[in-house]
Amino acid sequence: xxxxxxxxxEMKAAATLMILSSLLAAPAIAAEPGETKRPRLRATRxxxxxxxxxxxxxxxxxxxxxxxxxxxSVPDEGASPTERTEVRVLYDDRALYIGFFAAHRRASxxxxxxxxxxxxxxxxxWVAVILDPFLDRRNGYQFGVNPLGATWDSQKSNEGRERxxxxxxVWRVRTTITNEGWFAEMEIPFRALQMPGLGEQAWGINFQRxxxxxxxxxxxxxxxxxxVLDRVSLAxxxxxxxxxxxxxxxxxxxxxxxxxxxLNGASRxxxxxxxxxxYGLRPILTADLTVHTDFSQVEADVQQIGASxxxxxxxxxxxxxxxxxxxxxxGPGNDRANQISLxxxxxxxxxxxGVNGDLALFFSRRIGLSAEGAPVPIDIGLRLxxxxxxxRVGALYVRERGEEARPRSDFFxxxxxxxxxxxxxxxxxxxxxxxxxxxxxxxxGIDLNLRLSSNVRAxxxxxxxxxxxxxxxxxxxxxxxxxxxxxxxWSDSGWVADASIGSVGPRFRNDAGFTPRLGVNRVQxxxxxxxxxxxxxxxxxxxxxxxxxxxxxxxSGSFDSRYTEERLLVTLRDGAxxxxxxxxxxxxxxxxxxxxxxxxxxxxxxxYGFTDRFLALSTSRSKRLMLQARLSGGSYYDGExxxxxxxxxxRFDQHLSGSLTLNRDRIEMPGGRAVTDTLVLRVNxxxxxxxxxxxxxxxxxxxxxxxTNVRANFIHRPLSxxxxxxxDSRAEGAPSQRNRTLAFKVTRxxxx
Length: 752
Known about the structure:
Structural class: mainly beta
Low-confidence stretches: 1-36, 335-355
Largest sheet: 24 strands, antiparallel, barrel
Mean pLDDT: 85
Number of strands: 41
CATH architecture of the domain at 35-242: Sandwich
Helix content: under 10%
């Protein structure tokens, strides 16, 4: 045993030395071609900050330099927008002020029907800005607002490869609608941002306007139609910022909560308290502390229904793990050019047999949640994130509370990424989980993303489990406990292509990450072409045929499975879509696969070929009512499967919106038949931009369970909330199997 430990320590030291040498030897960031062609805007200093009332009537706004004309990206790339947009920028020692005027020839055509924070941008007009304070042309902060004053903000890393849509900042904005259009007046405090703290600064900046009625997007610094605002390398430059800094930025956010629970007939009531602390150690580094973390206000997971042999990766929704989460992303990220399928449940991505997504070296849902999704108490969490070594760094430590039936767990994550070659990066990551009863695991890896041109990107990673697992039967060795991937992608306004190879060893154990499958070698490819008949101005806006292939062999080189995707997506002028396609499957099962345990449906070992064909329809999101439907069916292993899904979404006014989704999944096999019906109902009511009521009701006929989650949220101060949350989960015909919770939670943000 001592010799094995010495061997592991030597490997860790060698890997660390190799990684650090690569990072330190990497060349500095190169200037990107076309730097001088980007538009430039000078910020105007003001001694009298404007009143944030959405009017832009102070003399300082008139004296500020206006941003140049906008350029369309969609639908007519390179053309002038159909409506004029003006933007001006002011600043003082404390904040940046951005004023938008979105002209509109007919004010009655302005679309606004959202009041909630982080609103759906596909249902309303809006304007937005992205700020790149370090001028690194890859990371930024986005701030957006619609005509009613509803807001959204987010962090973007590596030009959108990592998108943290749940990041929240303390900032203000007001809007005003007039007969000529609408105004938006933003105040963004410098302490809400990480920034260099130099005497005179130049930032990357870009502005976007979205016209929902025409499905038109335009930008101040032009962006090709295949990209969006988070393509920071295409942003312009904001000049003239002098004597500004992010300051101390100390934020303390305590909470108190009272909770009443009824769990399987037993009652329990109690109260608790905790605190979150954020402190800017330096202008480029931020420390976060959370004590006795509570996530009672987080919305329940939407049930994922299917008949897949593989685990489903549910999204993270908890604030502490979402903030700066882009720092801890590993590999190619969520670049759309690298996605072989869409998200599970949507069009071609609705297949159950395919391999959707890549492994996640760190998966935050492993912390504070059981395998069934039940909360696990967190005693303390620490995070450090920011910039160092010519790139971004992050470290995370979290301790789960141990109980009699569950050992205490400690999680540690370290991440570093060095930016190289003007748009590329190289990085390392270390992830570990230790348990009080033993069985520790740790994984280390390096990843590389190279931008070879504006359209071509190469990517790859290598990761390995740093300790052998004697509990596994497969042979030991470096290859069997490693994960590798390398790929090349192309994306322009017409073509999308991606090809990659990879492998995951049978002993690649990572208890703090997510690995879809062990012991496979994978080859993937995607080829798609976007056609725009009549320049995108006819009844049909775009036609997108695509072909995808995923081929897998086991670690011995024998055939495992092959999945093909053949799809044709047609987008109409108003944004409605029609999609049809087929998903041929070829699988070799070496063990029985339980399709439905309740009905006793099982597939015997063997090789199976079967094909799923589908038709999906969606009406325009611009309308108050939107209909989505999907029909699919075909052979399924040694039987047949039919799936029908119908969804109706409605936005009745700026206050009330909702959706209802019904799904029927019918499987017939030689051993019997299984029919699963599911229902998902959402109702959202916004009394104002500060008071909201949300309800989520779900039903699953297979488990015969009703799940209800109702949340009321009052924002009594910026980033300070009062929550009242009711959850109820019960099984039909089993009164004793009912869990019900009522929680009242108050948070208060204190800023210094």
